[in-house]
């Protein structure tokens, strides 16, 4: 009798446990389905974009939101968020708010990226930017506009709507070079032609932005990003998504000296400013 009693109540306990877990799961699903949406620009399938999207989806879920995406061009996405038609930008450089006052920056950066020049060495040698006749740039690339304003020489720019267009114009020989984020350089670029060159112009930080009506979320998102960084979660997600973080070298580090000698080659190695020596210095 005692054995039957134990079995009976153990069975009832299991049934109640399964029932409670089922109800709990249903309640959780209902909460997720009823959670409000945060609409961001995107999505994109590059490793960097998938990493940022994963971080944002994780953070917003913690705060009780679901993330949805609206495909938009780089230039239009900022306008749409500033107008309030969508809720935020996945990641942009850290001074967009100077031109778009309704954008609020989450002060903890999500990613650092390199702005690069890709070019054809047959057309520009070592491809110092001031030697490049024309460059393609995606319209709305704020990092480039800020960088251009600091140049001490004019630059002939052809604006396009997508990084692939800029890349194609270089490959097809229509333009000498293109300036873009290193995250937008196609993976097969380096194996397509040994004449292609990539020069790093500057390294910048990317931040998440929201429209001013979501300003109450800023401190909470900042805390979560800081927590993910301290716990190693950001690094883990970068590795999971295949992100290759840029390495900023310490100017004080001395890696030694390499010497080179060459015969005099007019225009290339006859002076210290010749193309040959500029290529060596760049390498």
The secondary structure category is alpha/beta
Q: Largest sheet, described in full?
A: 7 strands, mixed
Query: Which bin fits the share of residues in helices?
Result: 40-55%
> What's the shape?
elongated
Number of strands: 9
Low-confidence stretches: 247-255
What amount of the residues lies in strands? Answer: 15-25%
Distance between the ends:
86 Å
Number of helices: 10
Overall average pLDDT: 84
Write the layout of secondary structure elements.
Layout: H1 2-34, E1 37-41, H2 47-62, E2 66-70, H3 74-83, E3 88-93, E4 103-105, E5 111-120, H4 121-124, E6 134-138, H5 142-149, E7 156-160, H6 163-171, E8 177-181, H7 189-192, E9 196-211, H8 218-231, H9 233-241, H10 275-282
Parallel strand pairs: 1-2, 6-7, 6-8
Antiparallel strand pairs: 3-9, 4-9, 5-8, 5-9
Helix pairs in contact: 2-9
Structure description:
It contains ten helices and nine strands. By secondary structure, the chain is of the alpha/beta class. The strands form two sheets. Strands 3, 4, 5, 6, 7, 8 and 9 form a seven-stranded mixed sheet that branches. A two-stranded parallel ribbon has the order 1-2. Helix 2 packs across helix 9. The longest helix has 33 residues.
Short descriptors:
10 helices, 283 residues
Offer a quick outline of the entry.
The protein has 283 residues and is α/β, with parallel strands linked by helices. The chain is 41% helix and 21% strand. Strands 3, 4, 5, 6, 7, 8 and 9 form a 7-stranded mixed sheet that branches.
């Amino acid at each position: 009798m005692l054995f039957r009693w134990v079995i009976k109540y153990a069975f009832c306990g299991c049934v109640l446990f399964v029932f409670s877990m089922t109800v709990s799961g249903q309640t959780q699903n209902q909460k997720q389905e009823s959670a409000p949406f945060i609409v961001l620009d995107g999505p994109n399938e590059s490793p960097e974009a998938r990493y940022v999207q994963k971080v944002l989806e994780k953070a917003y879920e913690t705060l009780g939101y679901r993330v949805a995406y609206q495909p938009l061009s780089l230039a239009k996405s900022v306008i749409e968020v500033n107008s309030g038609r969508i809720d935020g930008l996945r990641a942009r450089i850290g001074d967009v708010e100077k031109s778009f006052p309704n954008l609020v920056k989450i002060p903890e950066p999500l990613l650092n990226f390199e702005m690069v020049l890709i070019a054809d060495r047959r057309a520009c040698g070592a491809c110092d930017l001031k030697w490049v006749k024309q460059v393609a740039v995606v319209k709305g690339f704020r990092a480039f506009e800020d960088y251009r304003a600091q140049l001490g020489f004019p630059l002939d720019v052809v604006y396009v709507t997508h990084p692939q267009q800029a890349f194609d114009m270089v490959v097809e020989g229509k333009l000498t070079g293109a300036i873009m984020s290193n995250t937008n350089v196609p993976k097969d670029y380096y194996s397509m032609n040994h004449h292609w060159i990539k020069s790093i112009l500057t390294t910048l930080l990317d931040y998440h932005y929201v429209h001013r009506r979501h300003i109450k979320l800023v401190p909470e998102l900042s805390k979560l990003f800081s927590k993910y960084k301290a716990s190693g979660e950001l690094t883990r997600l970068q590795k999971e998504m295949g992100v290759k973080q840029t390495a900023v070298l310490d100017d004080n580090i001395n890696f030694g000296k390499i010497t080179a000698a060459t015969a005099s080659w007019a225009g290339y190695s006859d002076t210290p400013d010749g193309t040959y020596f500029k290529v060596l210095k760049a390498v």
